[in-house]
Design brief:
single chain, 13 strands, Ribosomal Protein L25, Chain P, 7 helices, Alpha/beta knot, six-stranded mixed β-sheet, alpha/beta, globular, 273 residues
């Protein structure tokens, strides 16, 4: 069944009037007719099965909601990828694949060994808009129930405080403290990663036993170093905030590989539950 996102403001009661670029796709590419059924997602975790009732307006399509259900494509815990800012366009690939693998949020982080630097506010704003559009497209392609947020770039200090629950989210609310994992080449053995995952799974099981949703479970924050790796001083600071250093094996992975490897392992272990 075709799947599209709609803005919450486009829904009133049992009726959704969709506007925007997807209207052309629905009308002229799919050649839809009144009565055709689609899956419409609000981008915040709810899917609607909806039927077209009106195609007469040029710039809109009207749907009637048949049923609503929580999206079943989300992991039982929020995963936030804190990515050391890489060179050139690597961030675009990282965002796309991180969204496909279940990340709820991607945060570009200026770390000590970053070669790429944060630009002026105007350039950063333009870049962030492009990154957010990449996240939206990846969410649509992979059938996500939410559209992951790509935050504005921040310092390592601010990112770590945020992950530890000492900072604030984009809406100004206090960040939700949770588990912090930092893949590091000097971490000892794969057991370090296994132990970390066991802690996360135990928390998820407890939330499930208490009837809590995944939104209540502590978040998992994954810190990935840039091309130059993570500076030892950053590792020490992270450990002081309760982070766990973990190994991804005996090989040294590129920055664009390390985060996706970690997310893949987390996705497998959490989906397996």
């Amino acid at each position: 069944m075709p799947r599209f996102y709609y803005e919450p403001s486009e829904k009133q009661g049992n009726r959704i009037v969709m506007t925007g670029e997807d209207v052309n796709h629905i009308k002229n590419v799919l050649r839809s007719r009144v009565g055709d059924t689609f899956t419409l997602c609000d981008g915040m975790g709810t899917d609607c099965e909806a039927r077209i009732t009106d195609l007469s307006e040029r710039n809109s399509v009207t749907f009637e909601v048949v049923s609503e259900n929580p999206s079943d494509t989300e992991l039982p815990v929020r995963i936030v990828l804190y990515q050391g800012i890489p060179k050139k366009d690597k961030m675009e690939l990282i965002i796309q694949k991180a969204v496909e693998l279940g990340a709820s949020e991607i945060v570009p982080v200026a770390m000590k060994r970053c070669i790429a630097k944060i630009e002026d506010d105007r350039a950063e704003e333009k870049k962030n808009l492009r990154w957010q559009e990449i996240a939206r497209a990846a969410a649509k392609q992979s059938g996500r129930g939410i559209i992951p947020i790509v935050q504005k770039s921040m310092s390592f200090k601010n990112a770590l405080e945020r992950a530890a629950g000492e900072g604030k989210n984009s809406d100004g609310e206090p960040a939700n403290a949770g588990f912090i994992c930092m893949p590091y080449e000097n971490a000892e053995g794969m057991k370090s990663l296994s132990d970390f995952i066991d802690k996360v799974k135990a928390c998820v099981k407890q939330c499930a036993a208490e009837g809590e949703t995944h939104e209540v479970c502590a978040a998992v924050s994954v810190f990935i170093g840039p091309e130059g790796g993570i500076d030892p001083a950053e590792v020490e600071t992270a450990l002081s905030k309760g982070a766990s250093t973990v190994s991804l094996g005996k090989r040294i992975l590129r920055t664009e590989t390390a985060g996706l490897t970690t997310l893949s392992i987390l996705m497998y272990e959490l989906e397996k539950m």
